[in-house]
Specification:
alpha/beta; 667 residues; 15% strand; six-stranded antiparallel sheet; 27 helices; elongated
Length: 667
C-alpha cells in the first residue's frame, strides 16, 4: 500500500518510527529506552520520554490513572448469553471477515488474526490460540494492547511487543497491527488485528492490515446493498423474476413465488418451468427493447391459469427482468379507487306498508343463495337499494358490488364496457387492453340496471356468462372464468319485449330465476310520512338548517300526490322544500305549486261527494285484492270482478295499479 494512503490512516510519526526500526528482533529483550520509559510511567512520570511514541505514552498514562496492574494478566469474558447474541447478530460480519482473515494467515502462518466488535469482544480468530472468543480486549480492562488502542483511537494503529502495558504481553515478543472495519456511513463495526513474530512484522504489514479491513468493509457494504435490494424486491406488490442471458431464473421475489405457487428451488431453471403461454416465448423473453403491460395468460405447473399484465426490461448483460401484476389484484385496486361497494342493507330500507314488507321478504330469500335475481319496478322506486341489500346480506358481502346502467352506455360500447377488450381490439382501445365490469365484479355481485335496454348482440354475450361462468374480452380468442352473482333490474315489461323480439327469450328465463317487484310510491302511501321525515333530517344536516318537521297541511299535499317519479321524486321535493323553509317546519307554500293544485282538485269532489270517495277507495281495494289473488292475471281478475278486461284496465289506470306488481303474489 502506498505511503500516502497509510498517512491518511496512521500519523506520520508512527510511520516514521516503524520505518526507522525496520524488522525488529526482540529475542534478546525489549528496547532499553522503551523499557525505561514504561517503568518511569509506572512510577508516575508525566513527561513523555523522547524514545516513546505519543500514542503509546498517552495509553500507558490512561492505564495508570485507571489503576490497572501490569502483572497478573488474565482475560475477561462477556456473559455466555451476551456472547451468543453477539455471534448471532454479527453472523454476516464473521462470515465475510473469516475469508479475508484466512487469506492474511497464509502470509503469517505462525501468527494470529482476530476479529472483535466495536466493544472489544472477540468474535472470531484464526492461527495461534491467543485471544479466545468472548474475551474482551478493551484498553480499560487489559491495558495497552493493539485491539484496545485501535478502538480508543478509532484508526489504524500498531503496537510493538515492548509497547504493551501488561507484563505478559510485553514478554510475548509479538508485534500487532489493527484497523477498523467501517460501514458506508463511516461507523466502526469491528476491529481486525494481526499479530506476528518480529521477523515477519514490518512497514508493509500496516498496509496489509489496512487493506484487509477495507476489503471487509467493502464486502459488508455490498452485502448491505444487496440486502436492501432483496428487501425491496420482497415488499413489492408485484411479481419480479430476474432471468440470465439464457432465460434461466436468477431470482424471484415473494410475490412471484405466490403467483406461481413455487419455492426458491427453481433458481437456475428455465422460465417455462414457472408457466407457459402462447405469447410468452415470442414476445416476452425475446423482447430487446422491453415490453409494458402485456396482457397474458399462463398455464401453471399445477394446471391452473394465471391472468396477468407482464412487463419486461432487458439488462446490460443480456438478461431480462420480468414483472407480473395479477389481473385479479389490479381489479381489486381499481374497485377500491372507483368505490365499488354496496352501502344499503335491508335495515336501511324504509317502509312499513304491506306491499313493501312483502318485497323485503322476497329480497331476503334471494339473498340466501346465488341465483340470478330480477328486480322489477318503475323508475325511482329504489331498485338499486334492494340490489345492494341483497348483496350485503349474502355470502358475497365481502366482495365487490359493481352497478352498471345498461341504458346509459352507448350501444357500440356495451360489449367492451361489460366484458372488456384486448389491445388493438378496435380503434382507440387502450394500450394493454382493459378489464370489463364483469371482471371487476369477480368474487362479488354485478347489478345490471335497465337490463331491458341492453342491445340484442350484447344479450348473447351475457347469456354465455350466465351459462358458462366465463367472459371473453372483445377481440380475444380465450375466455376467462369469473365468479359473479347477477342481479338485474328493469322498468320495462320484459315479457312484452320478448314477444316483440327486442329481448332474447332464453336470456329472459335465465334472468327471471328469482324475481321481485318494488311497489311504486302511490301503492304504499302510508310510507310517505316516514320517507319524507327521513329525507328532511338528512337534508337538514347537509344544509345545516334547523328544519325538523312538516306541517299537517303540507303533509296532506304530499299524501295526495300521485308521485309518478316515485321515491326519487319525493326526495327531490323534500330537498327543495328544506332549502325554501324559513323556519323549523316545512309549510305548504314551500312545496311546488303543482303539488298544491293537484291536492286542491282532489279535495273538492271529496267535500261534495264523500260517499263517492269511499266507494272509490273500496273499488281500488277490491281490484287490488282480485289482482293479488289472480297473481296479476288481468283476464282472471276481470272475470272474478264481473267486468270486461278493457274496463278493468281503465280502472287500473285510474288508480295507478300495475299488473306486473301483482305477479307471483307480490302485489
Amino acid at each position: 500500500m502506498p505511503v500516502t494512503r497509510l498517512e491518511t490512516a496512521c500519523p506520520r510519526e508512527d510511520l516514521d518510527y516503524i520505518a526507522s526500526i525496520g524488522s525488529v528482533d526482540l529475542s534478546e529483550g525489549p528496547v532499553p529506552e522503551v523499557e525505561q520509559a514504561w517503568r518511569a510511567c509506572l512510577d508516575g512520570r508525566h513527561e513523555r520520554p523522547a524514545g516513546v511514541r505519543p500514542v503509546i505514552w498517552d495509553s500507558w498514562r490512561r492505564c495508570v490513572r485507571a489503576g490497572l496492574e501490569p502483572d497478573g494478566f488474565e482475560y475477561r469474558f462477556v456473559d455466555a448469553a451476551v456472547l451468543a447474541e453477539k455471534l448471532k447478530s454479527n453472523r454476516l460480519l464473521i462470515e465475510t471477515a473469516a475469508e479475508v482473515m484466512q487469506g492474511l494467515l497464509a502470509y503469517n502462518p505462525r501468527g494470529h488474526i482476530n476479529l472483535t466488535d466495536a466493544e472489544g469482544v472477540t468474535l472470531h480468530f484464526c492461527g495461534l490460540d491467543i485471544t479466545p472468543v468472548g474475551s474482551v480486549l478493551l484498553e480499560s480492562l487489559q491495558g495497552t494492547n493493539c485491539t484496545g488502542l485501535a478502538i480508543a483511537e478509532n484508526r489504524l494503529v500498531y503496537v510493538l511487543s515492548e509497547e504493551n502495558f501488561g507484563t505478559w504481553l510485553r514478554h510475548r515478543r509479538m508485534h500487532c497491527a489493527a484497523a477498523p472495519i467501517r460501514d458506508l456511513g463511516g461507523r466502526t463495526l469491528a476491529i481486525l488485528t494481526l499479530t506476528a513474530e518480529p521477523g515477519r512484522f514490518h512497514f508493509h504489514t500496516l498496509g496489509t492490515v489496512q487493506a484487509a479491513a477495507e476489503a471487509v468493509s467493502r464486502q459488508m457494504a455490498l452485502q448491505a446493498l444487496l440486502e436492501e435490494q432483496r428487501t425491496l424486491l420482497e415488499v413489492l406488490n408485484e411479481g419480479l423474476v430476474v432471468l440470465d442471458e439464457r432465460g434461466c431464473i436468477k431470482a424471484l421475489n415473494r410475490y412471484a413465488r405466490q403467483l406461481f405457487r413455487v419455492e426458491r428451488d427453481l433458481l437456475g431453471a428455465p422460465f417455462h418451468r414457472l408457466g407457459r403461454g402462447e405469447r410468452l416465448d415470442s414476445l416476452l423473453l425475446r423482447a430487446d427493447e422491453g415490453l409494458h403491460d402485456l396482457d397474458i395468460t399462463l398455464q401453471l405447473h399445477d394446471g391452473t391459469h394465471l391472468s396477468c399484465l407482464a412487463s419486461v426490461c432487458p439488462t446490460e448483460r443480456g438478461g431480462r427482468i420480468v414483472s407480473l401484476r395479477e389481473n385479479r389484484r389490479i381489479r381489486e385496486i381499481t374497485r377500491r379507487i372507483i368505490g365499488t361497494q354496496a352501502s344499503y342493507t335491508f335495515e336501511t330500507i324504509l317502509g312499513g306498508s304491506r306491499a313493501m314488507q312483502d318485497t323485503l321478504r322476497l329480497a331476503r330469500i334471494a339473498s340466501r343463495g346465488d341465483s340470478t335475481t330480477l328486480i322489477l319496478g318503475e323508475s325511482g322506486t329504489g331498485k338499486e337499494l334492494f340490489a345492494q341489500a341483497i348483496h350485503n346480506a349474502s355470502e358475497r358481502c365481502g366482495g365487490p358490488f359493481v352497478a352498471v346502467n345498461c341504458g346509459a352506455i352507448p350501444r357500440d360500447l356495451v360489449q367492451s364496457e361489460l366484458f372488456g377488450y384486448i389491445e388493438g381490439a378496435f380503434t382507440g382501445s387502450a394500450r394493454g387492453g382493459s378489464a370489463g365490469k364483469f371482471e371487476l365484479a369477480d368474487g362479488g355481485t354485478i347489478f345490471l340496471d335497465e337490463i331491458g335496454d341492453m342491445p340484442f348482440d350484447a344479450q348473447a354475450s351475457l347469456l354465455r356468462v350466465l351459462q358458462e361462468g366465463e367472459v371473453t374480452r372483445v377481440g380475444a380468442k380465450r375466455s376467462q372464468p369469473v365468479d359473479v352473482r347477477i342481479v338485474a333490474a328493469t322498468n320495462r315489461n320484459l315479457s312484452r319485449a320478448v314477444a316483440d323480439g327486442s329481448f332474447r327469450e332464453d336470456l329472459y328465463y335465465r334472468l327471471n330465476v328469482l324475481s321481485l317487484s318494488v311497489p311504486p310510491l302511490r301503492m304504499r302511501r302510508e310510507d310517505i310520512p316516514t320517507l319524507a321525515q327521513h329525507f328532511l333530517e338528512r337534508c337538514a344536516r347537509s344544509l345545516r338548517k334547523p328544519v325538523r318537521g312538516i306541517v299537517r297541511e303540507a303533509l296532506d299535499i304530499l299524501m295526495a300526490h300521485a308521485w309518478p317519479g316515485n321515491v326519487r321524486e319525493l326526495e327531490n321535493t323534500i330537498e327543495r322544500a328544506a332549502n325554501l323553509a324559513g323556519g323549523e317546519l316545512i309549510e305548504a307554500e314551500d312545496l311546488p305549486l303543482e303539488l298544491a293544485q293537484v291536492a286542491r282538485r282532489a279535495a273538492e269532489p271529496a267535500v261534495r261527494c264523500g260517499a263517492a270517495m269511499d266507494l272509490g277507495s273500496h273499488e281500488m281495494n277490491a281490484i287490488a285484492a282480485a289482482l293479488r289473488e289472480c297473481r296479476g292475471n288481468v283476464r282472471l281478475a276481470a272475470k272474478r270482478l264481473g267486468v270486461s278486461r278493457g274496463g278493468l284496465y281503465n280502472k287500473m289506470n285510474r288508480y295507478g295499479l300495475s299488473a306486473d306488481a301483482f305477479r307471483s303474489g307480490r302485489g
